[in-house]
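Query structure, 277 C-alpha cells:
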C-alpha cells in the first residue's frame, strides 16, 4: 500500500486519537507515531553531559528545512521505501548502514534537538500560528525602534553528544556524495542517488547525491552553524545575551538601533547557512 505525500487519513486519525489519549500536542503524537513505525517506542532523552546552550533567532525560513528532514530520516531508516512503481510504501525498518553513525541514533538525536526548541516553534514555522505560544521564559520577541518585530530570540539547551552525532551524519553524507566515498559508504551513496532521482515529497530536492547531502546540511544548519561566526560575532553575542538577561521573564523588549543591527547580522548569518539550493 503506497503512502501519500501527506499523512494518510487513517494515520491522521490515529495520531489525533493518540494525541487526545496522551493529552499531548498533535506534533508530539506524530513524532511518537513515527518512532513506533521505525521499530521502537519513544525513549526518554538520556542524561548526557555536557550540554550546550545555543542562542538562536527563531526564523521560519531557517527552521523550515530542519522539520522537513523527518521524512528523509524515515527513508534512510527504511521505514518508508519505494516500490516497483515508484510509490512510497512501508518497509521493514532495517536502518541503512552508515559507518560510525547508526541511523537509529541519528534519528533519536534529531528528535531531541527538535524537541529542545521552545514549545510552539513548529506551529510558528509551519505558519499555523503568527506567534510562538505559549510564552516561554527562554523566548523573547525583539521589537525594533520603528515598532516592527525584528525576530524571536531564544536560548536552546542541547546535548553536545547530539550535536556531534548530527555533525558526523552530515559529514558522512558529504563523504558518500563525493567522487571517492570509500568502503562502507556504497549503500549510503546509492540511497542518496535514489532520493535525488525520486524525492517524492515536494519539499525534498531533486538532483545528484551532493544536492541531497547539501540539503541535509542546510536543514541541520541551525544546530551545526553558529550565527555568531565572523569578526563581530562575539560582540553581537554579548549584546543579545545582555538583552535576554535584562528582559528575563518578559515576552518582548524594545531594542535600540545597535541592538537591532546586531540581531540583523545574526539573522543574516543564520539565513545564509540555511539558504535554499
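Result returned for the query:
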Amino acid at each position: 500500500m503506497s503512502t501519500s505525500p501527506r499523512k494518510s487519513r487513517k494515520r491522521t486519525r490515529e495520531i489525533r486519537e493518540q494525541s487526545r489519549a496522551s493529552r499531548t500536542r498533535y506534533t508530539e503524537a506524530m513524532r511518537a507515531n513515527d518512532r513506533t513505525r521505525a521499530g521502537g517506542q519513544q525513549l526518554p532523552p538520556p542524561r548526557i553531559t555536557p550540554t550546550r546552550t545555543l542562542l538562536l533567532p527563531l526564523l521560519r525560513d531557517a527552521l523550515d528545512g530542519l522539520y522537513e528532514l523527518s521524512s528523509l530520516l524515515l527513508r534512510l531508516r527504511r521505514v518508508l521505501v519505494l516500490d516497483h512503481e515508484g510509490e512510497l510504501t512501508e518497509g521493514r525498518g532495517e536502518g541503512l548502514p552508515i559507518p560510525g553513525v547508526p541511523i537509529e541514533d541519528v534519528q533519536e538525536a534529531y528528535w531531541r534537538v527538535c524537541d529542545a526548541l521552545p514549545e510552539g516553534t513548529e506551529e510558528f514555522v509551519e505558519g499555523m500560528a503568527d506567534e510562538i505560544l505559549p510564552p516561554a521564559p527562554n523566548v523573547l520577541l525583539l521589537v525594533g525602534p520603528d515598532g516592527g518585530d525584528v525576530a524571536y530570540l531564544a536560548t536552546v539547551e542541547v546535548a553536545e553528544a547530539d550535536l556531534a552525532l548530527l555533525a558526523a551524519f552530515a559529514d558522512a553524507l558529504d563523504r558518500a556524495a563525493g567522487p571517492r566515498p570509500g568502503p562502507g559508504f556504497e549503500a549510503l551513496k546509492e540511497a542518496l542517488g535514489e532520493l535525488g532521482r525520486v524525492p517524492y515529497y515536494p519539499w525534498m530536492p531533486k538532483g545528484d547525491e551532493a544536492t541531497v547531502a547539501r540539503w541535509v546540511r542546510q536543514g541541520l544548519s541551525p544546530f551545526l552553524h553558529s550565527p555568531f561566526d565572523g569578526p563581530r560575532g562575539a560582540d553581537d553575542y554579548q549584546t543579545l545575551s545582555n538583552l535576554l538577561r535584562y528582559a528575563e521573564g518578559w515576552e518582548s523588549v524594545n531594542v535600540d538601533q545597535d541592538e537591532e543591527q546586531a540581531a540583523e547580522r545574526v539573522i543574516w548569518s543564520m539565513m545564509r547557512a540555511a539558504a535554499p539550493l
